[in-house]
Amino acid sequence: MSDAAVTSTDILIELLPQKAKPKAGKLFINGEFVDSLSGKTFATHNPATGDLLANIAEAGAADVDLAVRAARTAFEDGSPWRKMSPRDRARILWKLGELIRTNLEEIAELETLDTGKPIFESAKFDIPQAADCFEYYAGWPTKITGDTIPTTQGGDALVYTLREPIGVCGQIIPWNFPLQMLAWKVAPALACGNTIVLKPAEQTPLTALRFAELTVEAGLPPGVFNVVTGFGPTTGAAMVEHPGIDKIAFTGSVEVGKEIMRVASKTLKRVSLELGGKSPNIVLADADLETAAKYALGGIFFNQGEMCTAGSRIFIEERGYDEFMSVLRGRAAKMVAGDPLHPKTRLGALISEEHLNRVLSYVSIGKQEGATVATGGERIGTKGYFMKPAVLEGVTNSMRVAQEEIFGPVASVIKFADVEEAVREANNSQFGLAAAIWTRDIKKAHQIAKRVKAGTVWINTISTTDNGVPFGGYKSSGFGRELGKAAIDLYTETKTVWVDLNG
Ligand code: NAI
Ligand code: MG
């Protein structure tokens, strides 16, 4: 978790020799980089400066169609990918992890330039974890097995199941953890033998395109992995509409998730959705309050709060309120944003001016609703999209700042009287992605963990994930579980084979 930052925008300008050189982006179809058929491009910017980083090819429906055809051909019987042994598939996955590590510094810089997140996060968390994810799934191709099942119908029979790849997977990912979200989707899909058409977010296409180069180096056959860059309502929608795509895996907003389900129903695509949250971080008075407060900061302010699991509703028991809040307020007030490329920066820029303004508007909404701003909540400077992290106190769970996903560095602090109230209010939300509980009472911790409706419940920690541990949401936070063995279920069909053994 990030500790308080020690840098400020004033003292840091361009101080690192840059390894990463963003270049014009093309589409990656059938193992080759190509322009879009229309020749159209769009710009990706550096959120820390607002400067243009590169122009990127914009895929239209016809380009998506070419990518789907390439992925379909690569999937069919007899293709090099389908003929490849699980062991060789495993080797390619491992190689991809290795190549990410070999190029870590460059890829981390690209990620930081494109997202505005601190290089500390890109280089120490996001990119290494993306590499880990490929290495983790490199272990799976040789271990995906079916069952043999005893039957009582029709006399003697041998019944077994096969786990088969689903086919062409369309994967649509967001801008907050670009390469990590790619890894969470691409690694298990490849482990199971699928082929892929991936659309990175329009704000952050650079690392997906760099990864595409690595797939060539790793020896992935052409057409197995394709990248179509472009916007949601055009490129993304063309994928969801396309009858040649068998499954859509999506991470992003609830609104778009609903739209994807609606459109995908026309072709009965398999759908899995990861849609963010408003995660409760429940702190009981008997917890180690200083540690809880430090981690609460990381829980909400890591990655500028642009995090689906952000512990954005901090529930604190009345009896512990003053002690907890004095640490939280003090440390939050000391957090300053800095140049994302500086290694000491712990708080970078938000993804865009539009998003920054949306996040800031929630601070005003909170005030109008009767909350008080304990610290932060203002834009810093006019260049780049920086803001001071905000702590809102006096929040009640029915306020908009407690119910709506802000997706920025805004913590809503809510007091509670007892565990019953905490559990009731924590569950009083359309979301259910994650929750955290802080207490020294182990029994109470497990009792609350059972009652909180969330895909992940952390006890005395927050926001940790692991490639082996299933991740996903209850309620409007989506469905399907990524990572671990759960993602193998997400990317395979089960086939039953029934063999009559009578006579
Ligand atoms: P978004 O849901 O619009 O974008 C996510 C991805 O979906 C992008 O690749 C986008 O191009 C694509 N997309 C958009 N419309 C589409 C459509 N009709 N069909 C197919 N693909 C489509 O999210 P956006 O606008 O970037 O952020 C808005 C809010 O969504 C954030 O403030 C946050 O609350 C939430 N969000 C949640 C994320 C999470 O990790 N669960 C990640 C990003 C955003
Ligand atoms: Mg960008």
Mean of pLDDT: 95
CATH class of the largest domain: Alpha Beta
Report how far the terminal alpha carbons are from each other: 65 Å
Class by SSE composition: alpha/beta
What is the total number of structural domains?
2
Strand content: 15-25%
Tell me the radius of gyration.
Answer: 23 Å
CATH architecture of the largest domain: 3-Layer(aba) Sandwich
Q: Give me the CATH superfamily of the largest domain.
A: Aldehyde Dehydrogenase, Chain A, domain 1
Oligomer: single chain
- Largest sheet features: 7 strands, mixed
Bound ligand species: 1,4-dihydronicotinamide adenine dinucleotide, magnesium ion
Strand order of the largest sheet: 13-16-17-12-11-19-20
Overall number of strands: 23
Q: Percent range for helical residues?
A: 25-40%
Number of helices: 16
- Name the overall outline: globular
**At the third CATH level, what is the topology name of the largest domain?**
Aldehyde Dehydrogenase, Chain A, domain 1
